[in-house]
Design goal:
alpha+beta; Immunoglobulin-like; four-stranded antiparallel β-sheet; 1 helix; 8 strands; 34% helix; rod-shaped
Length: 143
Amino acid sequence: MAWENVATLVIALLALVVSVASARYSKTSAAASKRSADAAERQAAAAEAALPPPPPPVAWRVIPRGEASFLLRNVGTEPALDVEIHAEDGRVIPADGGRLKASELKPGQAISFWIFTADQLPDKHEIKIRWRDSGGWGILPLP
């Protein structure tokens, strides 16, 4: 056999070895890519699940201003219409010359009120509130 034939055979065998190694590396790389994509998908799902839910359109917070003075603040994302605080037989009264009603409370706006307390009356721990689309009176705890 001539040395040219031997050289051709050696080159062909080397090409075969490189081709097999390349195919194995390609399979390993594809598997690693799939694992990476799966991990990224799981991470994205976990991040999405960890996000807090969006705030409701209308939400309330009662904020104390003094011993018996409070603010009812709209902490939602939309205006609340036809808002009313129940007077509770005169135990809840408007503050600052205001009213216990508002035709519209935009996010961040509030109604000021007082809770009438006396030694003869039990302590008040909640107020009743309603607004358009609330479905009736709801109860909010006082802080």
